[in-house]
Design a protein that fits this description.
It is a single chain. By secondary structure, the protein is an alpha+beta fold. The chain has one domain. 20% of the residues lie in helices and 9% in strands. The chain is elongated and about 45 Å long.
Length: 64
């Protein structure tokens, strides 16, 4: 789904001096992956999909 500038849901900023525009918000993905004994709080692929889907729907274009 494409939005016109007036309909955009996300704020964008310039990425340094590159001229690129990126979303102001970045989705941290450290808690996505494969749970281990040391990191039982990690969400597996199926559990993390709703977060990634929502970020995409809101025009967020960066993950960390």
């Amino acid at each position: 789904m494409k939005f016109t500038p007036q309909e955009e849901k996300m704020d964008y900023i310039r990425f340094g001096s590159t001229g690129l525009k990126v979303s102001r918000i970045c989705l941290g993905c450290m808690s996505f992956g494969r749970p281990t004994e040391d990191r039982p709080w990690v969400l597996n692929e199926e559990q993390s999909r709703p977060f990634l889907r929502r970020a995409s729907e809101e025009s967020q274009d960066r993950t960390d």
